[in-house]
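User: Hello! I'm new to structural biology and keep hearing that structure can be predicted from sequence alone. Could you demonstrate with Glycosyl transferase family 1? Please show me the input and the output so I can see what each looks like.

Assistant: Of course. The first part below is the input, the amino acid sequence of Glycosyl transferase family 1. The second part is the output, the predicted structure written as tokens.
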Amino acid sequence: MTVEVPVKKLSDYERFSKEDVERILELGRELKGLRVVHVNATAYGGGVAELLMTIVPLMRDAGLDARWEVLEAPMEFFNVTKKLHNTLQGAEIEITEEEWALYEKVNEENAKKLSLDADVVIIHDPQPAWIPNYLSKGTFIWRCHIDTSTPNLKVWDRLTSRMGMYRKALFHIMDYVRAPFDKIAVEFPPSIDPLSPKNKDLTEEELEAVATRYGIDTSKPLITVVARFDPWKDLFSAIDVYRVVKSKRNVQLAIVSAMAKDDPEGWIFFEDVLRYAGTDKDILFLTDLKGVGHVEVNAIQRLSTVGLHTATREGFGLVISEMMWKEHPVVARPVGGVKIQIDDGVNGFLRHNVSELAEAILLLLENPTLLTEMGKKAKEKVRSMYLSTANVRRYLEVIKSVVS
């Protein structure tokens, strides 16, 4: 399925990073008319879809013929690829021969169904990773958005044994790189779109409306976690951190999430977290089931006092950059790409266990000047490194390297 994307103009991003825009336009002139197609698992829910909704139109504005294709697959396939995702992050889960057969079948079928006639095909994550095996021509790049630093090697070896056709493999950080990609790997952090509904500036009236609609008490501090309902996000620990802080300060906790189409396990985990939270009225579950879309997430982040992220595995964690962009420090575990976004003690805190995370949040709540200073430094870190223009520039540089 081809995804329709909005029109976006690079000129609108010049005020954030003029240097990146100029470099993109320069590369665009060299690559003008080149056909590039991105392939991923879903058009909605999760960071990859959000990234592509900006990357594809900006590539078009730079002069490339860029498109976005999404897999067509039954729910059984996504049950398998969720297991695949978890094993690549280290889980000891068995993937049966029948499940491998389904995975292969869906990849082969999509190689025929999708519109993949292009000069460069960029495959995102493991779900469509075998598609190039069934295409007669093309230059292929694999973009990995997950933490593969300690994978289940049995699954990793089987998956990658049929991925020898890729010219480049892009990982958030080099800690994730393993054979057979060590010679073609590129460090490639993702980005946020400062003009998207999730990150654009909002008026006071818009913020007040969201606070009223979702029962956010603006008179007391708000700790916010934005994460999918996934075991790796460890939302139980987020609730534990809140409870420690709550014992000393009158605070609220917002757990903000969207239920992704390619994550059937998420619904089960959602119910588990709800039960763990109990009847505490200061724990707010704000999801798309209650009408929370991108603008609402933006408003909730802006209404927040501090961000919290308790994931035990994290490919990158764009929600960290989103919160930092709103001038709020984030307290998080130092895992995956989180630890390159947060400079400990400068624009947030990196801590390991519940008591340490809670202590860091209390330190910020008790020192308003420190909270403000860290928030300003957080926004500048994102502006300089993790905006869409930097991401598009990196893509065009990699594309140029494989077609030259």
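User: So the tokens describe the shape?

Assistant: Right, they're a compact way of writing down the 3D structure. Reading them back into a model, for example: The domain at 204-385 is CATH 3.40.50.2000 (Rossmann fold).
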